[in-house]
C-alpha cells in the first residue's frame, strides 16, 4: 500500500459484525436464529434496489386501480381476474377459460426468463425483484426510520424494556401490520372491481372470502417480511438449491477477490512497516454489517447469498477512503477469479501474494482479468434467450391470430336418436356459441352436408331449415338446443355426417364442427 493509503487504513472503523453462519462456527444441526441488524448501505447497487423496490411495489399496489375502457358490456379495470365470469382481462387482452394455455405459456416464459437471468447474472432475481426481498427491504425502511441504524437497533434490542423501547416497538409492528393489510388488500382488488370492493370492504359488506384472504396475506407478509426475513430464503425457498444448475464458470456472481485482498490486516501500516505482505482488505467487516442475510462473503460462495451486492457498495466505500481501486468485492465470473488466483499464487504453488498482481507503480498488471460485458452474450445465455424469445413470439402470434368466435357442440346421449311417426330420424345437440368480444353480433348457423336434413332450433323462427341467423350477446355464451332431422328415404346420407358452421359475415370469422348423425342400424 502507498503511505497515504496506509494512514487512511489505520483510521477505518472496524464494525463488530459476526456472520451468522461462519464456516468456522457453523453447527451441524439447526440452531436458534440469531438476529441480524443490517446497516444501511450507500452506493449504486443500493440505489438500484431502491428503484426496483419502488417500481415493483408501485406495480403491485397501483395496477388494480388502472382503468381500461372496454365498452358497456365488459369491466373497465385494466387487470382483472373475473372468477364469476371466468375471464382474465389484461388491458386489451381477454382470456377465456379454454384459452388458459396463454397463461400457462406465460408461466413457462417466466421460468425460462429466470433461467436466462440466473445464467447471465446469477441470483439477480433473489437480490432485487423477489417479493420476499422487496418486502423485507420495505420493512427494514420502517425499522430504520423508527429505531435508527444498525448500532442504535442493536442497543435498543439489548437494552431493558422502557417506555421508549415499548413505544418504538409498538409503532414499528403497527406499521408492519398496516403494510400487511395493504398487501392483502391489494391482492383481492385483482379479483373484483377495485373501487366497488374497497367500499364494500370498509363497510363490512364484502364476501367473507375477501376478509379471510386479507387476513391470511396480512399474516404471511408480517411474519415473512418482518419476523423471519432471511430464514425464508435459507430454509423455505427451493431456488438457492436449484439455481446452482443454472450457473457455469462464466456466470456473474458476487465474489470476494482474495487474490488482491489477502492477507487481510487491521493494522496495515504496522504490518507493512514490519515487512509483512498486506492485501487490500483491512478486515473492517463493513461487508458483513450491511448483509441482509448476515453472512461474510469473504468465506466464499454460500447458499444464503442472494447477490444483492450491498457488500460491494460497502467495500467500494472503504476502498474509496483508502485510495484503492474499487472491486475488492465485485461481480465476477469463476473463470476470471481462477485466472487471477493463479496469478496471485504463482499457479497454486505459493500463498497469495497481492504483489504478483500489481506493478511497481501499484497498478494492476495487464494479465489481471477484469469484467467484460461481452461474457454475458455467450452461447448458453443466447440459447436461453432464443428459447424464451421463440415462446414469446409463438404466444404473440397465437394471440394476434386467434378467432373471437367459437362453436361447441355436444350430441345428446340419451336418447341418441328419435324415430318419428313418419320414419324420419331426429338427433339432438346442445350447441354453444361463444362471442368473445364485448359487442353484440349476429351469427349465422348453417348445416353443411346431408342435403336432405333439416335443422330446427328451439326458440328460433323456422327459417329455411338449413340456415339460421342467431343474435348473440356481447362477451357471452349463447346456448342453443338444436334438432337435426333426416327423412326416412334419405337415411343413407347419415353415414357421412354433417358439418355445423358458425359464421360472422361482418368479421369473416367462422368455426366448424364435424358432427355425427346417429340412426337405427339398417335391417339385413
From TrEMBL:
A GO cellular-component term linked to this record: plasma membrane
Stretch forming the signal peptide: none
InterPro entries on file: 4Fe4S_Fe-S-bd, 4Fe4S_Fe_S_CS, Cyt_c_oxidase_cbb3_FixG, Electron_Trans/Redox, FixG_C, Helical_ferredxn, Ig-like_fold
Transmembrane segments: 48-68, 88-117, 174-197, 209-228, 381-400
UniProt keyword Disulfide bond present: no
Residues annotated as domain 4Fe-4S ferredoxin-type: 273-300
GO molecular function: 4 iron, 4 sulfur cluster binding; metal ion binding
Keywords (A to Z) from UniProt: 4Fe-4S, Electron transport, Iron, Iron-sulfur, Membrane, Metal-binding, Transmembrane, Transmembrane helix, Transport
The protein's name in its UniProt record: Cytochrome c oxidase accessory protein FixG
Organism in which the protein naturally occurs: Sinorhizobium americanum
Classification of source organism: Bacteria, Pseudomonadati, Pseudomonadota, Alphaproteobacteria, Hyphomicrobiales
